[in-house]
């Protein structure tokens, strides 16, 4: 697959010459809500990125000063109230598959967040590898406020690992807004920057990662995922095997030769 050739139907998608892809949720008049179709298309795209050699990093963001207001009230929430259990389970499994696909693709995913970031939008931010926010960013896992459980799309597994069990419990039980300042102090946001430089900062970070050893980045992401339920001994052995694989790459030799020649290495991802 060539990521730069992909034509998105339900969001904006582009890939620059540095291998940085930008996925933009693009319904700004409604604060970028998700639909059945956009969920499915994003799931399929992130799955396909496993085979996209021309894509090294992905930025997910939203148009119009907001990230996402979550599932569209009229196009998702309303129809869900009329569905039978088999249809409901098919939907909830599909939304969870989006998180699996985001976590499963080898490319680092950077969420560039501004304004509203709630519901499934907050989940997409959570599922990303790195999160940049602005002072305007308001994040809420508001499922209990619509009569649902806080355990949506992996939130009860992932969020406590990011911000701690107690803080995650508070957000998931109450559905209240986590401010940008809280998000940064708690470790959810890697950085809070002015809105005017949000995308510039995200692109700078993405390009620095794209210049790195992208095969090794994929190994790092995989280990961050698979070591969650390993014993320490198993994790250390798994990392030993992963690192031995990386030591056979040409990028490892390129780094050594560059160090010996006192110059910056130029990585090629192999």
| Spatial gap, N to C terminus | 17 Å
Largest sheet: 6 strands, mixed
Q: What is the helix/strand order?
A: EEHEHHEEHEEHHEHEHHHH
Global outline = globular
Kindly report the average pLDDT value: 96
Number of helices: 11
Strand order of the largest sheet: 1-2-3-4-6-9
Task: Decide which structural class fits the backbone.
Answer: alpha/beta
User: How many β-strands, per DSSP?
Assistant: 9
What share of the residues does DSSP label as strand, in percent?
Answer: 5-15%
- Give the fraction of residues assigned to helices: 40-55%
Low-confidence stretches: none
Q: Output the radius of gyration.
A: 19 Å
Structural features, described:
This protein is 47% helix and 13% strand. The chain has helices at residues 36-48, 73-80, 85-104, 120-127, 155-163, 165-174, 180-186, 198-210, 214-226, 232-246, 250-260; strands at 12-15, 20-25, 57-62, 109-112, 116-118, 130-133, 138-140, 178-179, 191-192. The mean pLDDT is 96. The two termini are 17 Å apart. Strand 2 (20-25), helix 1 (36-48) and strand 3 (57-62) form a beta-alpha-beta unit. Helix 1 (36-48) packs parallel to helix 3, helix 5 crosses helix 6 and helix 9 (214-226) runs antiparallel to helix 10 (232-246). The chain has 270 residues and is an alpha/beta fold. The longest helix has 20 residues, at 85-104. It is globular. It comes from Brevundimonas denitrificans. InterPro entries: ClpP/crotonase-like_dom_sf (IPR029045), Enoyl-CoA_hyd/isom_CS (IPR018376), Enoyl-CoA_hydra/iso (IPR001753), Enoyl-CoA_hydra_C (IPR014748).
